[in-house]
Amino acid sequence: MTDPEPPGTLEALTIVELSESVAGAYAGKLFAQFGARVIKIESPEKGHELRSAENAHLVELNPGKLSLTLDYGRQAGAEVLSRLLEDADGLIEDWPSRRAADLGLGDAETLLRVPRLVIAGIDSGLDAAQTSEAFEALGPRAAEKTGLHAFVAMLSALWYASQTEHGQVMRVSGLEALTSTRWAIDDRWHETRIEMSPTVLTSGQAPALGEHTDSILADILTLSPSEIEQLRTEHII
Known about the structure:
The longest helix is centred in the middle third of the chain and has 23 residues. The chain has one domain: Crotonobetainyl-coa:carnitine coa-transferase, domain 1 (Rossmann fold, 3-Layer(aba) Sandwich). α1 crosses α6. The relative contact order is 0.18. It is α/β, with parallel strands linked by helices. About 5% of the residues have low confidence.
């Protein structure tokens, strides 16, 4: 009989990922690799922006994540997202303005409901309307390195929240990360994780668009089949 596989280091964490750029997706990938449950929220119509790009990049960034399609720009979808965040430990996003405050999803409202939540907002640091296009201007590795910075910063904040029940909002700038001397940590990343022999890195497949929508809504939020069908009929999911 073979010994059971040891648990992932971060398996107790639930991370919600709202990302359109490589940076947010890469931060989520690192959490998933270390065993966290990462719920990737995508547009019901087209999914993550990378789904229209090369498939290999999509697979590389999303192994082991759960895909939930949700239009959280509408009231019914905002309520679903709000309930998800109540059970989450962290939120990764690279387009904070999409979390509309008038729907009760602003930073202050969210932290009031979930005081322990760690919110990491990622941006390029450039004055550009499209986050992903701005990261392209910084260079091909900038987005992944910014995602790494977000991951490390969130780990510190999540540890603090576990001790105090106090979360926080942080902003991670690609431009500032690019000029930081701490970028050297990325060059040693693969070497550092070999040294972490007791740590299990999980893999898995990249999910199909909305593959886990029903199971997340039913198992995590305990919505009934009729409630899920109503959301689908209204094109919320």
